[in-house]
Amino acid sequence: MRMRLLLIATVAALGAAACTQNEASGALGGAALGGAAGAIIGNNTGRGDAATGAAIGAAVGAAAGAYAGCVRDGGCGANDNRREHYDQRSGRYYFQDQQSGRWFYENGDPYP
Q1: What is the mean pLDDT of the chain?
Q2: Is 14 exposed, middle or buried (0-12, 13-18, 19+ CB in 10 A)?
Q3: Tag placement on the chain: N or C end, fewer CB within 10 Å?
Q4: Averaged over 62-86, what is the pLDDT?
Q5: Distance of alpha carbon 53 from its chain centroid, rounded?
Q6: Among 102, 106, 101, which residue's Cα sits nearest to residue 80?
Q7: 34, 62 contact by CB (below 8 A)
Q8: Residues paired with residue 105 on neighbouring β-strands, in sequence order
Q9: What value does the mean pLDDT take over residues 6-30?
Q10: 32 with 83: CB under 8 angstroms?
Q11: 3-state SS assignment for residue 86
């Protein structure tokens, strides 16, 4: 009973803290899958404590799911905050590399 209450509280807190739909669904899905996997692993290894394994699995799964959702939204380091410009002539976006100062299209081709 204690474990179920802890799991529900953890999932609710992570779901409330998540700021986008992908993060929330990733956190909830990750917590559910992580909790199930943790319970199975915890039951079959060590002292056979499924509750501790489920709690650890749910926490790790929720964090991983929230990060995956954040990346799907284009955050969490998925883009490098470069400013892109639109070239109407070619119909493509281009940007300036901060280290070299050179200009490139999105796919890495040099910008004329």
Answers
A1: 73
A2: buried
A3: N
A4: 69
A5: 22
A6: 106
A7: yes
A8: 94
A9: 62
A10: no
A11: strand
Q: Per the confidence metrics, is the pTM higher than 0.85?
A: no
The amino acid at residue 84 is E
Say if residues 30 and 61 touch (Cβ distance below 8 Å). yes
Burial readout 51-70 (b: 16 or more C-beta within 10 A, e: otherwise): bbbbbbbbbbbbbbbbbbbb
Position 27, amino acid? A
Provide the strand spans (E) within the chain.
84-87, 92-96, 103-105
Single-letter amino acid, residue 14: L
Give how far the C-alpha of residue 31 lies from the chain's centroid of Cα atoms, to the nearest Å.
12
What's the pLDDT at 46? 67
Domain residue ranges of the chain, discontinuous segments joined by +? 2-72, 84-112
> What is the distance between the alpha carbons of residues 27 and 29, in angstroms, rounded to a whole number?
6
Read off the amino acid at residue 106.
Answer: E
Q: What is the pLDDT of residues 24-45, one digit of tens each?
A: 667 677 777 777 777 777 777 7
Q: Which helix (H) or strand (E) covers residue 6, if one does?
A: helix 2-17
